[in-house]
Amino acid sequence: MVFGEWGIRKSYQLPSHQVTGRLTDVRMCLLSSRLASCLPAGRKRVEGSGEEQKKIPRLDLWSRSDDRRRTIMNNPLKKRYGLLGKNISYSLSPAMHNAAFKHFQINAAYELFDENFEDKKCNIDESISSFISEKDLNGINVTVPYKIDVHDMLKEREDCTLDEVSELLGAVNTVKISSNKLKGFNTDASGFFESLKEEAGFDPAGKNIFLFGAGGAGRAICIYLACLKEGGPNKIYVYDEKDISLLTLVEVCKSKTPGICERVEEKDISTKAAECDLLINATPVGSAAGDNRSAVPLDSLQKGMVVYDLVYARETALIKAAKENDIIAVNGLGMLVNQAALAFEIWTGTPFNEVKTIMKQTALNELARRKQ
């Protein structure tokens, strides 16, 4: 079974019997020709060789002490994965991934790597490459503030590659390490898109969308939606308190799909938001206990629209107000689970839908435990 140059089999190297049912439809939609048209004209895949890539020395994943290397070689079946980020003690990722490893009887462990590379004397790219070389990793997830840094590092390094989605978005949240080679992926936007369709029943085709938050996940979601080849939105309005993030995102979108993404001034937020079909909160506002603020003006909520808040740890003021007004409201747990399950599939080949079931229940149990 062949799906074409950017198809599922070629991108993920999965046996055909694992690409079945609904997963095929989702992955074909998210990771194939829908986004290919937004890559720079004439641009070859990053995996290509020749003059396109700068010849920066490859990452030497075996540049370790003899004792350390001997330990690794004596335990070839034990695999190590984790989450790289800053101030990430709250993360549900270890619970979800370790539950999946246990359920599918995979001899591996997932841990947190809470790193502050910004305080180190060498540049962030060097710090990240050294970190990966020293940790004996088989794969890693990446979160704030290092997604763009990891993308840039992989793009410049010899024998490191990017899939088409991470290249398009300019950010990496998943790295697969195999045979001394690294490949970067981005499962954030596709995880959101799947959740939006499944949980909210929302189809963005021809719709108007208002996005609050232009950094991190918000940036990935905006570019992804704007670059949908078929079934894309009519307009994406964006607001962020940080002008640099806002202007950068709008310019990136304009360079890829002119006319879709538009910056909104603070004074026009309520008016524009009230005219939209989907409101997305991609800011951390409302995530902390006792924080009853809303990045989205509550007076802009209208029946018939859909509200998606990426905050998942608690019911925010936005979600509560939407429900009180009989508006479809979805939190970010589905996106979190989907991006994690997609990463797990990339690393292990275990079918997405099977992993998703285990991870979602684990996440719900962990959140309930934390509230006790």
CATH architecture of the largest domain: 3-Layer(aba) Sandwich
Please count the beta strands (DSSP E, at least 2 residues each): 12
Structural class: alpha/beta
Oligomeric state of shown chains: single chain
In terms of DSSP E residues, the strand content is 15-25%
Average pLDDT:
83
Biggest β-sheet strands, sense, barrel? 6 strands, mixed
Helix and strand string, N-terminal first? HHHHEHEHEHEHEEHEHEHEHEEHEHH
CATH class of the largest domain: Alpha Beta
Per CATH, what is the topology of the largest domain? Rossmann fold
Number of helices: 15
Write the layout of secondary structure elements.
Elements: H1 8-12, H2 21-31, H3 33-36, H4 66-74, E1 79-85, H5 93-103, E2 108-114, H6 124-134, E3 139-142, H7 147-156, E4 160-162, H8 164-169, E5 174-178, E6 181-185, H9 188-199, E7 208-212, H10 217-226, E8 235-239, H11 243-256, E9 261-263, H12 269-274, E10 278-281, E11 306-309, H13 317-324, E12 328-331, H14 333-348, H15 352-371
Parallel strand pairs: 1-2, 1-3, 4-6, 7-8, 7-10, 8-9, 10-11, 11-12
Antiparallel strand pairs: 3-5, 5-6
Helix pairs in contact: 5-14, 5-15, 6-7, 9-10, 9-14, 10-11, 14-15
General description of the model:
The N terminus is likely disordered. The strands form 2 sheets. A 6-stranded mixed β-sheet has the order 2-1-3-5-6-4, with helices on both faces. It has a 6-stranded parallel β-sheet with strand order 9-8-7-10-11-12, with helices on both faces. Helices cover 41% and strands 15% of the residues. The longest helix has 20 residues. The chain has 372 residues and is an alpha/beta fold. α11 links the parallel β8 and β9. α5 packs across α15. It has 15 helices and 12 strands. The protein is globular and about 55 Å long. 41% of the residues are buried. The protein has 2 domains: 167 residues, 3-Layer(aba) Sandwich (Rossmann fold), CATH 3.40.50; 142 residues, 3-Layer(aba) Sandwich (Rossmann fold).
